[in-house]
Amino acid sequence: MASIASRLRASDEPRRLDRHSILGVLVREMINFTAYWKSTTFSSSVEPTIYLLAFGFGLGALVDQIDGHTYVEFVGTGTIATAVMMSSVFSAMFGAFFKAEHQHTYDALLAAPVDTEEIVTAEALWIGLRASVYGCIPMFVAMIFGLDPAWGMFAVPVIAFFTGFGWACFGLIFAAILNSVDHFSYVTSTIVTPLFLCAGTFFPISTLPSAIEFAANFNPVYHCVELVRGFIFNTQSFGDVAFHVSVIWAFSFICWRIAIRCQTKNLIH
Q1: Residues 6+ apart with CB under 8 A from 142
Q2: Chain-centre distance of CA 21, in angstroms?
Q3: Pairwise CA distance, residues 192 & 90, whole Å
Q4: Helical H segments across the chain, by residue range
Q5: 88: closest CA among 1, 4, 188, 171?
């Protein structure tokens, strides 16, 4: 009887990364998203589209081709990674900060059988799902202006999801460790902007100084750009794809674990 009772008590205890808890947080996010999806969709889709049109047709008038592709095609595939990063890191950073500090949403969730590991995981999964949609918008715009359809485009939402998951966790880290929204500008200026500019989005990284070109190999935005272009243009080998995927997965996993640790310290006093 004692062993049966112990097994029953163990089954009642919440499990680590309990799928029901994660699903509950996801459903909550989906329901809340219906109240502000228009503004979020507008900001997440218009900015990369402006980059595409400004650089694609502005510099495109001066640049003939890059690696055998028109400049609009080159920039159009590159801004997909930009859209993924922008729609993920800022949504996570600002959203998590206000939920924790002003709305006390996470306090309410922690009162239920949900822990910070499940909150972080659910938040990142939800933002990753959104990124898989928003990341495709520049691709559709580029198709209007000459990018040829390709079977590899079906891989873009998958690439955007995993990359968006990592960037969401990245944003959750700083939402936990910074104590003011004003401090987010430091992250934007010193980390996000340099990574986005040195990712091969608007020009090949081979044109950069050798030190910066080497550092780009550690830039997840660059690997997202290379994966997207490789699938759409069918120009990469299996080894190249495996390398880029490995870097993105490593980035996502490391940021996920750090985000859980930081959010736990921030929320559990």
Answers
A1: 52, 56, 72, 73, 75, 76, 77, 79
A2: 22
A3: 10
A4: 2-12, 19-33, 37-58, 71-101, 105-111, 116-134, 137-144, 156-177, 184-187, 193-197, 210-215, 220-233, 238-267
A5: 171
Q: Copy the structure tokens of residue 213.
A: 């070109």
Query: pLDDT tens string for the chain (269 positions)?
Result: 334 333 433 444 445 678 888 888 888 888 888 888 788 778 777 777 787 777 766 766 667 777 778 888 888 888 888 889 988 999 899 989 999 888 888 888 888 888 899 999 999 999 999 999 988 888 888 888 778 888 989 999 999 999 999 999 999 999 999 988 889 999 989 999 898 888 888 888 888 888 888 888 889 999 999 999 999 988 888 888 999 999 999 999 999 999 999 999 988 86
